[in-house]
Design a protein that fits this description.
Layout lengths: L7 H56 L3 H9 L15 E5 L5 E4 L16 H12 L6 E3 L6 E10 L2 E11 H52 L7 H4 L6 H61 L6 H24 L9 E2 L1 H18 L2 E6 L5 E4 H18 L5 E8 L3 E9 L5 H4 L17 H11 L3 E7 L2 E9 L6
Parallel strand pairs: 7-9
Antiparallel strand pairs: 1-2, 1-5, 3-4, 4-5, 6-8, 9-10, 10-12, 11-12
Helix pairs in contact: 1-2, 1-4, 4-6, 6-7, 7-9, 8-9, 9-11
Amino acid sequence: MGVFDLSLRHKIPLWGSMLIVASALAISTALMFRAYDDLRQDLFISTESLSHTLATTLFPLLLHDDLWRAFEIVQAPFHAELKKAPFEAESIFVVNDAMQILVASDPLRLPTLSDLGSIDPEYRHLAAELRKTPLTTTHAFDFPDARHYYIATPIAEAGRQIGILVISHDQAAFLQRFLDLTVRSTLIGLLVVAVILPINWYWGRRMAEPLVDLARGMDALMQGKPALLLAAENYPYRDELGQLFAVYREAAAALNEKALLEQEVLSSERLAAVGRLAAGIAHEVNNPLGGMLMALDNLKQRGPLEPTTVKTIALMERGLQQVAETIGALLVEAHVPIRPLTGHDFDDVHTLIGPQADKKQVALDWQVEPPEKIDLPAGLVRQILINLLLNAVQAADAGGRVGMVASWTDKALMLTVANTGAPLPETVRKHLFEPFIAGREGGHGLGLWVTYQTVTQLGGQIVADCLEGETRFVVTLPLENSTA
């Protein structure tokens, strides 16, 4: 991935930082060249002023050959109180037309009446330049490989020239002064950049975050899952970006409304199909069910029976009565008497589930205190328990555990069914209580939907969660006028 493919939250601060650094370098370079020129110009201007003053003073002295007095004049700029000048000359000397030194601030190195060109190659080059350059005013000499700057001024008055005043400056001292100025300027520039770069990075990310959030939201929008834009909620401005956020919110609201309508239509279609199927099954089951209940009643009328037979008949009657109540709930015209929940119902469920658990080699942990009577429809509660326990046994691995805990107070009955095994997939958990959504292979997806409808019919709640390798369903059913 190239630099241009980076996220805006990185690209905007990065390009901004590069622009700041490049601008700082360009400005610093330009200022350094300008500072060098200004410093050099100041050197020449201050030296030119000194040259004119000395030339004016030296003219009458040289005219009368007062060399001692002239020596004092050229020595004056080197006095201790004048050494703090911005540009201190290294040497001052006067030559005549024959390039002989008349007077110098350093007579040991530049002896009087000595030939300027015989001192060293640099002075020889200077002497050659002075011979071929007619001087009418102050002139600066800066030739290659020279270690000094030379400013020459003619000592003349009324058109009569009697010598040339030369002031030399050491280039190393000048460059050191320029370097000191450059270092100070660079430090100030680095300080400014160090302050601006974090500000640029902060504002760059602050500008990019809404755009990145919007891009993420648009991607979710294209997938049909509009996301909440946190940046949009915290962006109160009405510029182009604010308008984009407003349009996104409208589009997301419209898509959400469309998705809800589609879900409602789908649920309605499923419920209608289930209703038609249930009504047809109810009519087909109702007649043989009545015959079986009548046969059991006739069996009880035939005389004394063994206790085991009586217990089995009671179990079958309660089971068939549960079926009858369920069928009656599916038929609007049916009026089936409601039997309250008792401890026998929990025993029946345990008896029915036990063989299924043994067949799957699953341990059944049963924690129920048998109640005398609970004012809840026995058939519906039995249906809830059987559906949840059968699902738990099917979902548990061989050698696993299925737990059933029933507790109640004056206000509610709480049923907890838990099993070990693989947790429910996230895709199934999102639609757990919808019809035809199966959580296991071979399931039809109606058991949990019927359970959810039954719990809702009783005014209760059902919650599913997966914690520490265990899937748990908790059902809470409110009690009214309970006689537990």
